[in-house]
UniProtKB/TrEMBL annotation:
<dbReference type="Pfam" id="PF00106">
    <property type="entry name" value="adh_short"/>
</dbReference>
<dbReference type="GO" id="GO:0016616">
    <property type="term" value="F:oxidoreductase activity, acting on the CH-OH group of donors, NAD or NADP as acceptor"/>
</dbReference>
<keyword id="KW-0560">Oxidoreductase</keyword>
<dbReference type="InterPro" id="IPR036291">
    <property type="entry name" value="NAD(P)-bd_dom_sf"/>
</dbReference>
<comment type="similarity">
    <text>Belongs to the short-chain dehydrogenases/reductases (SDR) family.</text>
</comment>
<dbReference type="GO" id="GO:0050664">
    <property type="term" value="F:oxidoreductase activity, acting on NAD(P)H, oxygen as acceptor"/>
</dbReference>
<protein>
    <recommendedName>
        <fullName>Alcohol dehydrogenase</fullName>
    </recommendedName>
</protein>
<dbReference type="InterPro" id="IPR002347">
    <property type="entry name" value="SDR_fam"/>
</dbReference>
Amino acid sequence: MASVFRPGALALISGGASGVGFAFASHCRRQGMHVALLDINRETLASASSALQAIDNKLLTLTYEIDVSDMDAWAAIRADVETKFQTIDFLMLNAGMAIRTTSPWKDAAYFHKTLATNYFGMIHGLVTFLPLVTRSPSPAAIVMTGSKQGITNPPGNPAYNASKSAVKTTAEQLAHDVRTSGSSIYAPHVSAHLLVPGWTFTGLSGNLGPVADEEALKTKPRGAWLPSQVAEYGVAKIERGEFYIICPDTDVDEALDNARMSWAAGDITEGRSALSRWDDKVKDEAAGWIQKEAERRRGQ
């Protein structure tokens, strides 16, 4: 089967002007793809466009300034994209934000704002551009960016965790429906994927704009991955047709991630307290079990 990442194809990426989104955009450009970047920051969009043109200026780079929570803005972008392309071959819904409040349980606006961007921003993009993806006669892929916080659900930022948990659920439903005969969006040539970065040096952690790896390395925390590492790991998983793309980082390997997720699922199946990993009565037991489970997995 032909690769999604192929010359002449179109990639459309929200949150594409920096971080993981731009790293995927750069990979797409190096494979000979046209790229449409969507982002809220006009300056980083301009910088990202210049960087992609420097890779190959014979290919088209489209840029759109957008607040992804605005459904009407998505419709306007689709109208423009369709004047140039009939299909989208790689759709990445990646835009996100992390805000905090001192009193989350007294602040409804904190929940509304977080979900408007992190969840409904993705829904808007999906509803707007899914028809262009399924219309493609060639292999196509949709990637939705989640978070480990949407799986293990650590305390501290409930709105962010809820938004990323919703992304996970939606991506799973999407993957099922595009592969299932009789579904209203059945498209066996389209794959859906949930990208879950580990600790990554992005705009959420101080790495702003389309920064070259050699520059990012000067200030990157030791344990964090570069966005380009996430893209490399993610592309390999997409090419193999894997839905769950749970990225490690320098501090946390795949075995430890899997052990933590297994413990979290066990809160339900074993009847433990909610978020027992952080429960003072259970956290020592949790830490010991997770360590042993990770070691067991490494030895397999």
